[in-house]
Design goal:
The chain is of the alpha/beta class. It has eleven helices and eight strands. It is globular and about 55 Å long.
Length: 304
């Protein structure tokens, strides 16, 4: 089992290695030439940070969930910009090559979790079109950096829709899922939700997986918030069995002290139970690599 670092290394950030973003408002205030130049520089920086973070994960035996902020505005239709439009496109291509070489040399497991605004079961056609554009783009990025088109490089998302019966929602999802590129479809996995009116492990296993055959990501905290008839071991084992022989990637976090049990804590204090199953686990904690380091020390102490 390997821990997964989600998006940012705080240790690298302290060294000045951090992602840069660009809003459409800022992009729009610049001349087209200056806007493209600035955007290109920021994307190149983000690729360099990504490469450094993958190397950092290799050094620490972590998996890595890439940031959703690497390519600001590239999939935003109003910006009307593609990577090929950027004046430093050749350098960006070199950035892709560098990441591919690092992954090949280190064998870090690289994954992604596109933003919650991506909803394939939506009733809104514009939202669906944006989702398909976003998912296909990130899958093409995975292709470009040499990742396999299978569940060893999963792209994780939620169903995020309860409008209609289970089968009505699933049929909408399947219809739009089939519009995705083949390599994207081959990577997509679905996670259980933490809200009581959304998709629990029980619902995902009973209805969704049974009709789509798509793997289910088990999130410990989400299941704790929304167990829906299944104890933790039963739910985790059921999800583990959906991964078609690939090593599952699950999620762990703990509740931040306060009134909202769904909010993620900075650090985790309680070793989780694997029930003697093998899987990797993204550590969804605010303190990022510091939290993983401390959690590993706690677990080693518990074993000792």
């Amino acid at each position: 089992m390997r821990y997964g670092l989600c998006c940012i290394s705080l240790k690298l950030k302290e060294q000045g290695l951090k992602h840069q973003t660009m809003t459409f408002k800022r992009f729009s205030t610049l001349s087209r030439e200056e806007a493209l130049s600035t955007l290109g520089d920021r994307i190149l920086n983000n690729l360099e940070v990504t490469n450094a973070t993958i190397q950092f994960c290799s050094d620490n035996n972590y998996c890595y969930r890439v940031s959703s902020d690497i390519f600001p505005l590239i999939t935003y239709d109003e910006a009307n910009v593609s990577l090929e439009d950027l004046p430093n496109y050749d350098s960006i291509q070199d950035g892709f090559d560098n990441i591919a070489q690092t992954i090949a040399a280190t064998n870090v497991r690289v994954t992604c979790h596109p933003s919650e605004f991506n909803v394939l079961a939506s009733n809104n056609e514009k939202a669906i079109d944006k989702t398909i554009t976003e998912l296909n783009f990130y899958s093409s990025f995975f292709d470009r950096i040499g990742l396999p088109a299978n569940y060893s490089a999963p792209m994780n998302m939620h169903v995020h829709n309860k409008n209609g019966t289970h089968m009505e929602i699933i049929e909408r999802f399947k219809r739009n899922f089939n519009r995705l590129d083949d390599n994207c479809k081959a990577r997509l996995v679905i996670e259980n939700d933490d809200k009581l009116n959304c998709w629990s492990v029980f619902e995902l296993i009973t209805y969704f997986h049974a009709n789509t055959n798509i793997p289910i990501t088990f999130d410990y905290l989400h299941h704790k918030c929304h167990p829906d008839r299944l104890d933790e071991e039963t739910a985790l084992r059921a999800c583990h069995d959906t991964w078609h022989g690939h090593k599952p990637l699950f999620h762990y976090s703990e509740s931040k002290p306060g009134n909202n049990p769904r909010a993620h804590a900075d650090y985790a204090e309680n070793p989780f139970n694997t029930y003697k199953l093998d899987f990797d686990v993204d550590m969804e904690l605010k303190a990022k690599d510091y939290a993983i380091e401390r959690f590993d020390e706690i677990c080693r102490g518990a074993v000792a």
